[in-house]
UniProtKB/TrEMBL annotation:
InterPro entries: PRib_PP_synth_CS, Pribosyltran_N, PRTase-like, PRTase_dom, Rib-P_diPkinase. The keyword Transferase applies. Residues 7-123 form the Ribose-phosphate pyrophosphokinase N-terminal domain. SMART domains: Pribosyltran_N. Pathway: Metabolic intermediate biosynthesis; 5-phospho-alpha-D-ribose 1-diphosphate biosynthesis; 5-phospho-alpha-D-ribose 1-diphosphate from D-ribose 5-phosphate (route I): step 1/1. It catalyses: D-ribose 5-phosphate + ATP = 5-phospho-alpha-D-ribose 1-diphosphate + AMP + H(+). This is ribose-phosphate diphosphokinase. Keywords: ATP-binding, Kinase, Magnesium, Metal-binding, Nucleotide biosynthesis, Nucleotide-binding, Transferase. Belongs to the ribose-phosphate pyrophosphokinase family. It comes from Lentinula edodes (Shiitake mushroom).
Length: 347
């Protein structure tokens, strides 16, 4: 049962389709609110219903137009705070500026920390996100942060949709993703590989190439796993390398499909069977432009994390226990699902 204070879910303009899917699974209506721009570009927010003493969740992803989406989120949080909401949780499936998590060169900003500060100052009490680019971003906050994992969804897709996965090899395109791919490989009982990206010369504009440091992909189903794709440069180099090394099939499973600087026709020409992303970022336009693109729905995971947060239940049980509890269509019944099984709503 839900607590006495009801769940109130709001959203900005970043990903209304995901917010609608989440509310349908929870059987909770979206709070009507208007988020629009003045003629000078300033953002105005109007919340049409009371949120006083309510448990508020604001779903807003850091996708295209990241700055506008971030400002919408901050203003929505501030508006709910001044409207006396009991608790405000920012649900940010794709965290903005996550790649700027460290000072990797002189005078470089740590913008992810700045975003964390702004969320707290605006009045946010709790953050829910998914597959942070760097897990240490959680330490930038002085409030609770739940970093959800797409790993159960990845395992489910591999087992259900990739023919010959038992003869597969899980591939990381860089050293930073080694921990992620080894965990998936261990759960599947298959091997893993690590690719290293390097330049052919010392010049900044020297051509780049990749070489396999660990693992043998010859005559195997290569399954490339990463957290983000934006320009597609890494994917292009990695798939060509795997193809040259004799992989008989190539799949890429990537959580956040930004795809902001890539011509989707390039993916069509790559030696890749399928590019699989989640809908932490809207993918409707991308799907229309690429027949190789498959989208996994994360709304059941988001909905269940909201339900658990509201009821004071453990979020980690979604990923630690063998059995998962997934919200159903009427929001009051629960159904047991095994890790690795397909997430779906059952009526």
């Amino acid at each position: 049962m839900y607590h006495n204070n009801s769940i109130r879910i709001l959203t900005g303009n970043s990903h209304p389709e995901l917010a609608q899917a989440v509310t349908e699974r929870l059987n909770v209506p979206l709070v009507p609110c208007t988020v629009k721009k003045f003629s000078n570009g300033e953002i105005n927010v109007k919340i049409s219903e009371s949120v006083r003493d309510e448990d508020v969740f604001i779903i807003q992803s850091g996708c295209q137009d990241a700055n506008d989406n971030l400002m919408e989120l901050l203003i929505l949080i501030s508006a709910c705070k001044t409207a006396s909401a009991r608790r405000i949780t920012a649900v940010i499936p794709s965290f903005p500026y996550a790649r700027m998590d460290k000072k990797d060169k002189s005078r470089a900003p740590i913008t992810a920390k700045l975003v964390a500060n702004m969320l707290v100052v605006a009045g946010c009490d709790h953050v829910i996100t998914m597959d942070l680019h760097a897990s240490q971003i959680q330490g930038f906050f002085d409030i609770p942060v739940d970093n959800l994992f797409s790993e159960p969804l990845v395992l489910s897709y591999i087992k259900r949709s990739i023919e010959g996965w038992k003869n597969g090899i899980i591939v990381s395109p860089d050293a930073g993703g080694a921990k992620r791919v080894t965990a998936i490989a261990d759960k599947l009982g298959v091997e893993f590989a690590l690719i290293h990206r390097k330049r052919d010369g010392k010049e900044v504009d020297a051509p780049e190439r990749m070489e396999i440091l660990v693992g043998d992909v010859k005559d195997k189903v290569a399954i490339l796993v990463d957290d983000m794709i934006d320009t597609g440069a890494t994917l292009s180099l990695a798939t060509k390398t795997l193809h040259e090394k004799g992989a008989k099939a190539i799949y890429a499973l990537i959580t956040h499909g930004l795809l902001s600087e890539i011509n989707l026709s390039v993916i069509e020409r790559l030696p890749i069977d399928h590019l699989v992303v989640t809908n932490t970022i809207p993918q409707d336009k991308h799907k229309d432009g690429c027949s190789k693109l498959t989208v996994i729905d994360i709304s059941p995971t988001i909905a269940e994390s909201i339900r658990r947060t509201h009821n004071g239940e453990s979020i980690s049980l979604l990923f630690v226990f063998r059995k998962l509890w997934v919200i159903t269509a009427n929001a009051m019944d629960l159904t047991k699902m095994y890790i690795g099984e397909q997430f779906k709503v059952e009526s």
